[in-house]
């Protein structure tokens, strides 16, 4: 039998037992290559959260921040393995900007498979790296000595660092979809697989920006490092446009999973034999964009509420649930010597619960403060 990568694979007759390989039974119309999957992974994890890393390092300190970012990145990556294997422009109201972007968002969400989205993710990655390069240009201009900053922050601020870093690094929402759409899904995991390659690059970038961003701005680090850049220089303010464009391009990738769930779970069977099946799918995609548009227009301080929902779900979804799933799969006689897998997963579950509590508490406090 030939697997998705085109290489011969032998399978025991009957398809069961230890020799059963679910990868070879996938039927994909547009499978993505390893490089295309890596591009999506980088874009799925490398977002504007990296701009908050200097402030996160201010809360944790230089050395503690660097070490703990690597640790959190390792934990996130491990849990993903378990799961798969307006300054220069006319000032406009945010609602008007949302309306202007509505049609382009609908257009980009009409792309129906990840393979066709790969060039868009690649463009978004290039744009993001350009934006980071501009930020670091200002960071390294007259950067003070490292000795002027704290190597370890106050313990009471560590929860803010933890929440910022965990939610910035986590990309569990797109991980399964990426692995499911690969031409060679076995290449996703492993020590030198797509997931590890992508996460190594991402963690290094987060540490780099956070470390030197904190050295540059110290206690003056704002929620996004772009807010520390000179407001009277066009190059500095172009960073806002760059990251806004990268987020716009990535909208279809982030929307892929909810659209797939809605269509596959609730609508596909109903319209399976309809001659207008494709039309119904496009209508559903348009409706998803319109709903997100209406939420953005109707809910004040949408970003804070998104952070709250992310805090409530992401720690459980990205860390605790994969550990729970592994326990269920390996229970009761495959938990390793002295049940080390069980104890390891219990620690991950506790870690996820701490992240949930810390993130939710931080988001709630920010919401309360913003309305005062």
Automatic annotation (TrEMBL):
Residues passing through the membrane, by range: 60-83, 95-111, 123-140, 160-178, 198-215, 235-257, 278-299, 305-325, 346-371
Main subcellular location: membrane
Family matches, as InterPro entries: AA_transpt_TM
UniProt entry keywords in alphabetical sequence: Membrane, Transmembrane, Transmembrane helix
Pfam families associated with the record: Aa_trans
Residues annotated as domain Amino acid transporter transmembrane: 31-87, 91-361
Gene Ontology MF term list: L-amino acid transmembrane transporter activity
Compartments where found: Membrane
Topology in the lipid bilayer: Multi-pass membrane protein
CC terms in the record's Gene Ontology section: vacuolar membrane
Protein name as it appears in the record: Amino acid transporter transmembrane domain-containing protein
Taxonomic path: Eukaryota, Metazoa, Ecdysozoa, Arthropoda, Hexapoda
Organism of derivation: Nesidiocoris tenuis
The UniProt record lists the keyword Transmembrane: yes
């Amino acid at each position: 039998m030939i697997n998705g990568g085109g290489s011969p694979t032998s399978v025991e007759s009957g398809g069961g037992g230890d020799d059963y390989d679910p990868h070879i039974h996938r039927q994909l119309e547009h499978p993505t290559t390893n490089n295309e999957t890596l591009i999506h992974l980088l874009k799925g994890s490398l977002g504007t959260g990296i701009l908050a890393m200097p402030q996160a390092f201010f809360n944790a300190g230089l050395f503690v921040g660097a070490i703990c970012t690597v640790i959190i990145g390792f934990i996130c990556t491990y849990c993903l393995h378990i799961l798969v294997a307006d300054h220069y422009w006319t000032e406009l109201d945010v609602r008007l900007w949302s309306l202007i972007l509505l049609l382009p968002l609908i257009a980009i969400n009409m792309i129906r498979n990840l393979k066709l989205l790969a060039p868009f993710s690649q463009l978004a990655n290039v744009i993001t790296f350009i934006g980071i390069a501009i930020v670091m240009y200002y960071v390294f201009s007259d950067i003070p000595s490292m000795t002027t900053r704290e190597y370890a922050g106050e313990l009471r601020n560590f929860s803010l660092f933890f929440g910022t870093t965990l939610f910035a690094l986590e990309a569990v929402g797109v991980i399964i979809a990426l692995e499911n759409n690969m031409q060679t899904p076995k290449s996703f995991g492993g020590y030198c697989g797509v997931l590890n390659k992508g996460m190594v690059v991402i963690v290094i970038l987060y540490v780099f920006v956070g470390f030197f961003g904190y050295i540059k701005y110290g206690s003056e680090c704002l929620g996004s490092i772009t807010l520390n850049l000179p407001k009277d220089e066009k190059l500095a303010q172009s960073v806002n446009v760059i990251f806004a464009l990268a987020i716009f391009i990535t909208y279809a990738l982030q929307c892929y999973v909810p659209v797939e769930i809605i269509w596959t779970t609730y609508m596909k069977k109903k319209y399976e034999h309809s001659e207008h099946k494709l039309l119904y799918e496009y209508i559903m995609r348009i409706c998803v964009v319109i709903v997100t548009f209406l939420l953005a227009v109707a809910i004040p301080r949408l970003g804070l509420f998104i952070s709250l929902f992310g805090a409530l779900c992401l720690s459980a979804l990205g860390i605790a649930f994969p550990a729970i799933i592994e326990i269920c799969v390996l229970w009761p006689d495959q938990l390793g010597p002295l049940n080390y897998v069980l104890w390891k997963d219990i620690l991950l579950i506790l870690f996820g619960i701490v992240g949930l509590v810390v993130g939710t508490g931080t988001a709630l406090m920010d919401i309360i403060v913003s309305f005062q």
